[in-house]
Structures are given as C-alpha cells and as structure tokens.
Amino acid sequence: MAGSTEPPALGPLIIVSGPSGVGKSTIIQRVLADPPAPLRLSVSATTRTPRPTERDGVDYHFWTPARFAAAVAAGEFLEHAEVHGNQYGTLRAEVEPFRRAGIGIILDIDVQGAEQVRAAEPRNTSIFIRAPSLEDYERRLRQRGSEDAESIARRVAAARAELALAPTYSYQIVNDDLGTASRELRAIIAQACARTRDDR
Question: What pTM, to 2 d.p., does this model score?
C-alpha cells in the first residue's frame, strides 16, 4: 500500500554467558560503546547485595527476595535462576518491547538462565566467554579482591561445571586479551544483526 511502512525487524537476542569474573561485563561495555547496530544490555534483577560501585537500575535491579518471588509468580521473567545462593532473572520488560522496536538485546546471564532462554527463544545467538584456563580464572578472582577463600573455591567449582556446557553455545571466546575478545564479540553481534535484517 502506498505510504505504508513496514514494522522494524525484530531485534536480535544475544546471550552471553561465562564464569563470574571472566570479564563479560567489560567486554560487553566495550561493544556497547561502539555498537554495530541499535543495541542495549538487559538489566537483570537480583536478590544479592550491591557491590560498592554498583547502581540500582543500572548494573542490576536490586530487589528483596519477596519482591523477586512476587515477580516470578506474576510471570514477569523471561528466565530466572538461583546462582551462588542468590536469585537472578531477566525481566520481559527489559527485552520484549525493545526487540519489537528493532533493538538488539544482550543478555549477560548464567548457564541456567541461558538454557531457559534458548528453549523459549530458539532464534538467538549464544556466546560463552571463558578464561584461558581454570588457574587463570582463579587468579583473576583473587585479584578482584571482593571474594574470600571460600567464595573463590565455590566459584571455581561452579566455573568447572559451566565450562562443561560451553560447547552447547553457538560461539566461544577466550578472553586472554581484552581488545581481541571485544572485537570478536562485536563481530559476532554484527553478523547476528545482519541475519535479522536478511530474515525479514
């Protein structure tokens, strides 16, 4: 029809997982500073306590367990899981309206959440970011200085289990150089955005 305009293509859904402390957030922020297409990071909700540098509504939505449970009951989450004793979840309101507007969404989520999203949204691009070795990962955790010995041991054990699922992702990126890893992630996202446009 003359004068009609097509709605924008559905924005791509980008899933990024990897052990805590492997550098996911830094790599993602580098991509967002120079995105290959309209792109935003979904802000997850969590019941954990904020770290000193974290801001509510920017880094996470920091919720009480009661508020989180109510949102689960109301079906507000695309996915949710317990990780290291705390609840984390992706709110539908952080994803669906933006994708309908043609904006790509990055989900920085753990392997449990990623499995749920991939089952619910088969058209996705999934990337697993890893350290060169478990020993290197443990060293990074110690350098971060925010974990005690027990927490580090727990996270290393969790990382070992997460690494076993890495082959189920579409791509794997080894973060042994921040610049290289950021460029690799940007290239993968650019391909996903191009595929979305071609599928219209």
Answer: 0.87
